[in-house]
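Format notes (please read before filing issues)

Several people have asked whether sequences and structure tokens are stored in separate files. They are not. Every record keeps both together, in the order shown below: the sequence lines, then the token lines. Line labels are part of the format and must not be stripped during preprocessing.
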Amino acid sequence: MWRRLAGAVAGLLVLFVGSLAFNAASGQSRWPRPLDFVRVHPWVVLLLLIPLALIGLGQQPPCSDRRQDPLPPTAYQLPPRNTNFTGRDATLLEVRQRLTSVSDVATLVVHGLGGVGKTQLAVEYAYRYLAKYRFVAFLGAEAPDLVAPQFVSLAGELGLPEVSSDQAIPRVYGNLVDRRPWLIIFDNAEKPGALAHALPSGSLAGNGHVIVTTRVSGWSSSAGVVDLEVFTRQESMKLLAQRVPGMAEAVADRIAEQLGDLPLALEQAAGYMGYNQTTPERYRDLLASHLEDMIGRGEPSDRPSVVVATLWQLSVERLETEQPQAVRLLEICALLAPDPIPLDLFTGSPESLDGAPADALLWDTAVGALAGLGLARRGEASLVVHRLVQAAVRAAMPAEAHLDARVRLCRALLAAVPDDLHSAPDARPRRQQLLPHVIAVTKDDPPAECAAETAVLLRLASEFLVQIGDYSVALPLCEHALAIDESLGDRDAEVGFDLVALAQIHRDLGAPARSRQLAERALSVHESCLPADSPAIATDLATLARTLCILGEHEAARPLAERALRIDEAAYGPDDPYVSFDLIALANVHVDLGDHASAAPLISRALRIREAKYAPDHLYIGYVLLFQARVLHTLHDGTAVDLARRGAQILLTQLGRTHPKTEDAFALVDSLQGGAR
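Then the structure lines:
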């Protein structure tokens, strides 16, 4: 527009000057009507035309700039843009900032698990900032030998004459000097050394940006690294809502959880639901019951040949050739929960991995290989394998390998889980750490080779869940343990342990009649196969006594509790934690009989034993403090409120504010404070 305006004004100036010359030469007193004003007021017209001419000319680019108008950006092999691309805004901004923060060539590595969206992020970056580049190329780097031939093809795209493979790379970078800034994406690269020959260097290194996507670790010394994690739950739910309109939030949340928020798996899920017209609710249920099968079904709309089931197959095959011990470790990890797996679970048991724990270097390289190929994430003392990597590995495992791994795991877990929940000081955190793995390994019916170990693990897990008040999960685990032990035969003592554990669960669930039946049966079984002074019988007696008190049979309960206390004092000594449980059971009997004065010293003794054996914030101490506070309040002891506050704080620390036991504890504090006023 300004160019046309400048031309018009310049023409008027020429006309004006020409008119003045004609007027001087002809001596005319009158011009044609449109120009008569020019004749009468020539300098006014000149003053009006000059500023317009200057403005118009000032808007024209210099001639040299016109010769250097930027060419439109050219893209080579850039995949189509993903119209369903979701989230990652902060990461894209980080990539842009890091690439543009240096004046030299910037190489940035996007590293992460297969299926996490590394390629999609790089492609989206290219499209989002396409106007910032004059040339963009996308090259596959999974096969290092095929990178140079791609540069030969790229040279042809740039209009270079035919070049050999060994000359193509420097020739291409040399040509790109005149096309800066440029962007080259190397997708799915292996180790840094395999791609070093294809990266710009020397005088060719200051012209553009390089993005490398890879699953493989070890790039930090060669370039900046962005570790790409799975989606946040909000990003996962947003993607599912976009692809499957009308999906309920709760269903989307559950599907995202089952798929571990892996972007490729979410796309695959949406593709499955769309093609098969499967409702989200039905798909959620299929994931819960057939995860290993479902990860091989459905396909992303933009990558129909890629499915989660085969995503890591090449990496596993490579490991099988180079480090088979790492594959055995991965197969064992595939049967565990997608939670941090403590590495000492393996090093503490010779059953876990063929000889690797005995050889520190072999063991470290096996663990490192899983992390290096992106099949696991390694922590200081743990290993985390994504749930879909686990599912894919399980689906590919031969039945023999699956059985062998499960037997090894059962034995390793049984050696690692503390069997004495009361005496071992670190028993609770250790059981908390191993609980999800025990549940994962024991969820199916066990093979005969590890049935006995499975039953014990199930009972130990249920006992821990009872300790933290999660009875609804504890109950089916303990029932499963009992069913296994009863099916095996010749396990009367173990059956008794299962029965008394079930009795305690039903008692706390408010079913004392059922609890009584189980406790009486446990006592009968143990008295038939164990010595009369066995501590197992003491546990049965104390459990039955507590249940009889709930049923109102206090006089019948007292001799049972007293006998339990005598057995454990003789077996463990007067200051053992097991004795503290008998003391509490007997104190409960006295409280139910209305004899708070007799209960108080029993509780005080139990508290002293536990304070000497456990950490100050242990749950067992919190429970005793709350019990003591109730009894002392009845006896009008002014220390009751402080004891209740201390106990409630322990439960808050260990169980959280919303746990029912914590809420009951603070309700007691409020009640005692009201009574004190």
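For reference, the curators noted about this record: The radius of gyration is 39 Å. The beta strands are 74-76, 106-111, 135-140, 182-189, 208-214, 224-227, 341-342, 377-378, 382-384.
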